[in-house]
Design brief:
- Helix content is about 40%, strand content about 15%.
- The strands form two sheets. A seven-stranded parallel β-sheet has the order 6-5-4-3-7-8-9, with helices on both faces.
- Helix 4 crosses helix 5.
- The longest helix is centred in the first third of the chain and has 15 residues.
- The protein is globular and about 40 Å long.
Length: about 210
């Protein structure tokens, strides 16, 4: 699958100030993309929604492009936060909050959240998930269900098989602790154990990403 995004990097990503001219390289904004995974059933105003919003906001504020599955719950929260973070920084580019969706219905009928600035739609769910796994440079994982577990488990297997290069996978909170321990017992390598990191806050997740993305 061809890469759809420029692989630009901010010179400094760990500052929580808005990206300045240092975040523009050869006329293009930093397009390092981070995927956010999590439940589609999280309600606005709930604790998990607020944390996911903070994740999206924090990622955008340091110059990352935010990618989600494009629908509701954690996906909407992270998209909303990213849109707000970009607006706070005066960034108006229309492709910095990405939703990867599937199906043949219109965006409105399919329930794509309104904060998605660029929708990438595939015919099938399998193609959608492949894009969400293959394209980002890092991942932030929120509480979720079977679908979320399948996503980060596939990331682990792809890294182990060298289908994708090593990429950080950051878990917010302890929700997935037991599942990750089981997964790493099955397919884990020292490299994977270093890449799968648990943190408590959005700010910590951004700091770990900055340390692990060249």
């Amino acid at each position: 699958m061809p890469c759809l995004y420029f692989r630009q990097r901010l010179d400094s990503r760990i500052s929580y100030g808005c990206p300045t001219i240092g975040g523009v390289i050869q006329g293009e904004w930093n397009m390092t993309t981070i995927a956010v995974f999590g439940s589609g059933a999280v309600e606005p105003g709930s604790p998990d929604y607020l944390v996911a919003y903070d994740v999206g906001w924090s990622l955008a504020r340091v110059g990352y492009v935010v990618m989600t599955g494009g629908y509701m719950g954690v996906m909407a929260a992270a998209s909303e936060g990213a849109a707000a973070g970009n607006a706070d920084c005066g960034i108006s580019e229309a492709d910095r909050v990405i939703g990867v969706t599937y199906g043949s219905q219109s965006r409105t009928l399919d329930g794509v959240n309104r904060w998605v600035q660029q929708e990438i739609r595939y015919p099938t769910h399998a193609e959608r998930i492949t894009h969400l796994i293959m394209e980002p440079e890092g991942y932030v994982v929120m509480p979720g269900g079977v679908g979320t577990r399948r996503e980060f488990a596939r990331v682990a297997r792809c890294i182990k098989m060298r289908t994708i290069p090593p990429r950080p996978v950051i878990f917010i909170g302890s929700f997935w602790q037991a599942e990750v321990q089981q997964l790493l017992a099955e397919v884990g390598t020292p490299e994977l154990r270093d890449l799968f990191v648990f943190v408590e806050t959005a700010a910590e997740s951004v700091a770990v990403l900055a340390q692990n993305i060249a």
